[in-house]
Amino acid sequence: GADMVHLDVMDGVFVPNLSFGPPVIERIRPLTSMTLDVHLMMQYPDRLIPAFAKAGADIINIHAECASPLGDTLEEIRKLGKKAALTLKPATPAEAAFPWLDKLAMVLVMTVEPGFGGQKFMADMLPKIAALRSECRRRGLDTAIEVDGGINTETGPLCIAAGVDWLVAGSSLFHAMDPAAVVNVLHSK
Ligand code: ZN
């Protein structure tokens, strides 16, 4: 019952953990018609945007705190026909996304420090979500807001109340006896 697949790419530099890259995404692509939402926790995402696009990403998320030029990198994602998204680490304010909002399909608010699964949801991110929602509304933009980190059947509804469109759930789904039931609860909120 999930709506899309969120793929956490970690480069061992931007975050102290390493996951996978374009070849793994290329192997996932033919297995599903669901949207592949690729979250690049990378210091230099611009170096591999064409590779992730070619591998079959639908949405490409880059971090506002990365070392690549944000404007050019977001533009390249769009030029390749993909949806561009910007991700904010917990310490990065909502305002960091404001200059790019009209170019973004989505803003991803991290509700844990990126790098490892299984962390506890940071409830103090809820005002950031509300600030982004209010700025999008003020400017008449339909930019989606997504959250990632510590999302479960308790924290998900708090995010939805704050204005979130997409919930990324990892541990709460993969460790559940009945993952579909978790998705159902989140859908019903
Ligand atoms: Zn993620």
Describe the fold and architecture:
- This protein is α/β, with parallel strands linked by helices and 189 residues long.
- It contains seven helices and seven strands.
- The longest helix has 13 residues, at 126-138.
- The structure holds zinc ion.
- Zinc ion binds next to strand 1.
- Residues 6, 8, 39, 148, 168 line the site of zinc ion.
Order of helices and strands: EHEHEHEEHEHEHH
Amino-to-carboxy terminus distance: 14 Å
Global shape = globular
Overall residue-averaged pLDDT value = 96
Structural class: alpha/beta
* Percent of residues in beta strands: 15-25%
Care to count the β-strands? 7
Query: Order of strands side by side in the largest beta sheet?
Result: 1-2-3-4-5-6-7
Summarize the structure.
By secondary structure, this protein is α/β, with parallel strands linked by helices. It is built from 7 helices and 7 strands.
Outline the secondary-structure elements.
Layout (H helix, E strand, L loop, with lengths): L3 E7 L11 H7 L6 E7 L7 H7 L3 E5 L6 H10 L3 E6 L17 E5 L15 H13 L5 E5 L6 H8 L3 E3 L2 H4 L4 H10 L1
Parallel strand pairs: 1-2, 2-3, 3-4, 4-5, 5-6, 6-7
The structure holds zinc ion.
List keywords for this structure.
alpha/beta, 7 helices, 31% helix, binds zinc ion, seven-stranded parallel beta sheet, 7 strands, 189 residues
